[in-house]
Amino acid sequence: MYKMPFDMKQYKKQYRQLPNVKKSNTIYKWKHRGLIGDYEKIYNRYINTTHCDLCNILLNKKYMEHNHYTGEFRNIVCQTCNTNKSDRKKQTNNTSGYKNIYYHNTRKDWVYKKTFKGKCICKYSKNKIDILCIKFAGIILFNY
User: Distance between CA 105 and CA 65 in Å, rounded?
Assistant: First the structure.
């Protein structure tokens, strides 16, 4: 068996820490999660921010506070300020009448999304009844 002259895991780890790679991965995640705005300006602000924009405490972990309906970026905040925003408390896209089940307009799918033992379970189906079966099977089998 051919042995690599260097450790590939170590190489990938170092590669991911390069400034340009780190930047492109971060921006990719923001786009994937629906954040909208001038990504260059937002990234520069994200890198240079050390204190919460709302309560001014020193940040251990940075959160991208944004409008959950439009995706528009607003502030870089602490966890407390991020969870206290009013638009996070109400999810109006739940058209199913069941908790954690909603219709995703862009995908044209029904979605079941639940956090269980620290892992996010996300299932998609064209049929609402299939999603309900998945939800209730989880309740019966795993008590979640």
Answer: 23
pTM, two decimals, is 0.54
The pair of three-digit structure tokens given for residue 120, joined into one six-digit string: 């996010």
Tens-place pLDDT, residues 54-68? 899 999 999 988 877
Q: Cβ neighbours of residue 80 under 8 Å, at least 6 residues apart?
A: 55
Longest pairwise C-alpha distance within the chain: 58
- In 3D space, the residue among 58, 54, 118, 49 whose CA is nearest the CA of residue 82 turns out to be 54
Q: Do 33 and 67 contact (CB within 8 A), yes or no?
A: no
Residue among 97, 96, 101, 98 nearest 112 (CA): 101
From 55, 56, 75, 53, select the one nearest 65 (Cα to Cα).
75
Burial 13-37 (b: 16+ CB within 10 A, else e): eeeeeeeeeebeebbeebeeeebee
Letter string b/e over residues 65-78, b meaning 16 or more CB atoms within 10 A of that residue's CB = bbebeeeebebbbb
Q: Tell me the residue type at 115.
A: T
Residue 131: exposure state from Cβ atoms within 10 A (0-12, 13-18, ≥19): buried
